[in-house]
Amino acid sequence: MPEKKLLIVDYDRNSLESLVSLFKPYEFKILTATDGQTAYELFQREQPNCVILEAMLPKLHGFDLCQRIYEESKGDVPVVIVTGLYKGPQYRKEALRSFGASAYFEKPYDRNKLVATVLDLIQEEMEIQEDLPSPEKVTVLLDELFDKVKTEENKGGT
Prior knowledge:
α4 links the parallel β4 and β5. About 30% of the residues are buried. The termini are far apart. The chain has a single domain, classed as Rossmann fold (3-Layer(aba) Sandwich), CATH 3.40.50. The chain is about 55% helix and about 15% strand. The protein has about 160 residues and is an alpha/beta fold.
């Protein structure tokens, strides 16, 4: 199984380091950036499994970055916003609804809840990728099912 990548973005070095140390025990390749533009370039180059970002970022705002990642990955790469600035339900709602964020945490955040959320999102993303059969396989399975139904009908079964 390919290594899982986590991109963590925060302009504040202490916050960045604290987030990195939170995810160090897990088997992730951790990528970091301190501004939105660098984060966006890293996202495009590295294709991380999940992105954690502060909403307030220099060069490219966190909400805009979140929206770009959501649109370009067609929602496949979960983005978790962790912010100290944008507090309140209106920001949370907008981030989740308008910008495609998968989760929204305000600083100070519950460390266990954040880790659990990120692990769930990455696990979900990996399972979706692994479990879905290809469209061709679905077509074959449906054809087999229809043939079976037809055969049963011809036998006079129910």
